[in-house]
Amino acid sequence: MENTVKKLNQSIEKYKAIQKKQITLFDTELMPDLGSLNFERASAFADLKNNLDRFLNMIHYEDNNDLMTFYQNQLSLLIETDGELKKTISQYKNELKQHMCDMNKSKTAFHGYAKSVRSFDQKTFGFTG
Predict the structure, then answer these.
(1) Which has the closest alpha carbon to 47: 6, 84, 7, 3?
(2) Alpha-carbon distance 79 to 18, whole Å?
């Protein structure tokens, strides 16, 4: 039991550290790599889930409500932080979409100006030549 609890604690701490690191990345980096962040969090979650499953299988045969309550609180905190992270990622994606739309509008306007300039240059040469 001691080894199972130790591994579960390590998994929880690792997941917390990843959450904290990723939240900080959105504050400090201009364009965090969402794919690598998702992969990192998913692999840590898989490890946490496996250790939690082992713990639940082990605790099923024992009566330790204090330990169960402790882990329920720990998992609730992880879920709450994941919600904050999800909100941050969603906001980042929306900002990215808006920037892409703005860039497309600028690109369209630029092409329109370029056509006007080419048209103007052709008219100018027509008068001088």
Answers:
(1) 7
(2) 13
| Tens-digit pLDDT profile for residues 76-113 | 999 999 999 999 999 988 988 887 887 876 767 666 66
Closest CA to 52 of 3, 19, 16, 11: 11
Joined tokens for residue 35: 């794919």
| SS3 annotation, 107-128 | HHHHHHHHHHHHHHHHHHHHHH
Q: Which domain holds residue 105?
A: 2-128
Q: pTM (2 decimals)?
A: 0.73
The domain tally of the chain equals 1
Question: Which DSSP letter does residue 63 get?
Answer: -
Tracing tokens 């490890």 back to the chain, one arrives at: 47
